[in-house]
Amino acid sequence: MTVPLRLALTADLHWGIRPAGDEATRLLIDFLKKEQPDALILAGDIGAGEDFAPCLSLFADLRCPKALVPGNHDIWVETQDPLVDSLHVYREVLPQACAEHGFHYLDRGPLVLPGGAVAVVGSINWYDYSWSIDVLRGQLPDWEEHLRNKRFTRGRHNDARFVRWPLDDRQFTAAVVSTLETHLQQALAQVGQVCVVTHHPAFYGLAFPRPAEPVSIDGLLWDAFAGNRALEAVLARHAAQIPYVFSGHTHRARKNHLGPIRGFNIGGDYHFKRLLLLDWPAGDVTAHVFGDPNG
Length: 295
Description:
The protein has about 300 residues and is of the alpha/beta class.
C-alpha cells in the first residue's frame, strides 16, 4: 500500500544577502512548522560561505527528513588559500555542515522517503555550454574567451570570480551527471519511482522563461552557463520512473515537461521566496509565496 506523503521544496534562499529575503525565509519556515511536511528538500543556493550552516540551523524544529543539493553560490570561495577551494567546499565542508544540522546531502547519495515507495535523487548539476555552444561558435569569433572568462557584453558571471578549483566546467559537469545517474540506479534498485532535484535546471524547458530561444550574445551565454544536455539524456533514459523534476537557480517559476516527466522550476528570488508542496502519489503541486515579489 502506497503511503501518502507531502514533500516541501524550496530553492534560492540566499540567506544573509537581503533583509527582506531573510524575513521571507523566516515566514516560509513558520509556515512549515505549522504544515509539518513529510520531507523538506532545498534545491541549492542556501547561503554562501559562512551563511550556509546558519541557514540550515533555522530548520532545526522540523522533525521530518530534510535533504538538499548545493547551488553555485554555496561553493563560492573568496580566499586565495589553495587548501580551501570550491571542490573542497563541495566535497567536504558542505556535507559536514549538513550532517551537523540533520540534512541529507543528496550529492552523496539518494534519500528513500518514508514508506519506501519513492526516493529523492539530487545534484548541484552544472553547465558545459552545450545548450548554446553550437550557435555561439557561429556568431561570436572569440566565443572560447567569453566562455573561459564568463564575460558577457555587459558584466561577468560571478562564478568566474568565486568558483575556484582545479577543474573546468565540462569536467565538473561530466562528474556530477555521472554521479547522479549512479544514484538514480541505486535508488531504483530499492524503489519504483524517483523524484529528481537539481540546482541548475535539469532540462532546457526549466531554464529562463522566454517567448523564444535567445538570439542575443548575452542570452546565448546565459544558456551556456545554465545547464547541460548530458543530464537531459540521463533523464530521458529513466523517464518512465521519474515522475517529477524540481530545479532552482533562475529565480523564475516555470513548469514544463520532458517527455512524461513533469518539471518545475521553483522560483523565488533574493527578496521573496517560493515553496512548492507535492502531494504524493496524488500529484497535486501547490505554490506558496513569502515576502513581496514586487518589493
